[in-house]
User: Fold this.
Amino acid sequence: MSHRNFNLAGVIGNPVGHSRSPKIHNHWLHQHGLSGSYIAMEISAEDFPQVIKTLPKMGFRGVNVTIPFKELVLQHVDIVSDTAAIIGAANTVIYRKNGTSYADNTDSAGFINNIRDMAPDWHPDRGPALVIGAGGAARAVIQSLLWEGVATVFVTNRTRQRAEMLATDFGNRVKLINFSELTGILPTMMMVVNTTSMGMHGMPDLMIPFDRLNPRAVVSDIVYTPRETHFLRKAHKQGCEVVDGLGMLLHQAARSFDYWFDVKPEIDDAVYTIAMDT
Ligand code: NAP
Assistant:
């Protein structure tokens, strides 16, 4: 069997033991009758440049890249997508048949495809969006909202300086606000997204003036452990349509799978069950 008939991919990071990606991708390989495997590889920062060069020689179609290598990877591939460049990080490397390596960030597509799936009535013309957080995930979400056509994206973050850098990179459709201004602007926000790690197992809940949420707003949390966060519960009580973060995880994985194996995998109940099963 030649390299290219065996569908090999994986995730490199440190640590990677917690990753749900092997279960998700191996399920899809099996579901589509593709021979191959997706494996988790814990590597050191020192070995990273060598590993990223060697994997295609071993038959890998590509890899996901996770903490702490998402930024570093941009310096070790031949081509960086526009999305990965503006986000400043990539989570997927594709080894092309012509021998070049390409890095993209599929979180952006993952976020918006999940919104399209779960809140099909939401439309970018409905009104402005609020993104809470200014890390790598915030950048991916903001990028997708701007590309989708949302006119203005408001951003608030604990560390103002990080949000200022983000606003400089994205231009004047992104507006910074202080947390204290949320009470005033929340009623006009038609999409509200938590991109911080607040609300994750072991972290405090994210508190905003929930009673100021517009019931017509779509509210999304990209945290997926737990799947139903306090933030989503409060928004749901307020009458908002809510979208959890597990779908984003599956949609970003689907995009990577399609890149490597040229198959768009199903995001069905079976893969949700597999992704939830820790
Ligand atoms: P990151 O770059 O480290 O950014 C973390 C963000 O959370 C920053 O805005 C940070 O604010 C904020 N934050 C952290 N602790 C805080 C606290 N105690 N109080 C207030 N703000 C706090 O991380 P990331 O890569 O953007 O990931 C953020 C979250 O998104 C993680 O939970 C991750 O698991 C999740 N995620 C989900 C998906 C998905 O597919 N569903 C994809 C990517 C990421 P400062 O700037 O002030 O530190």
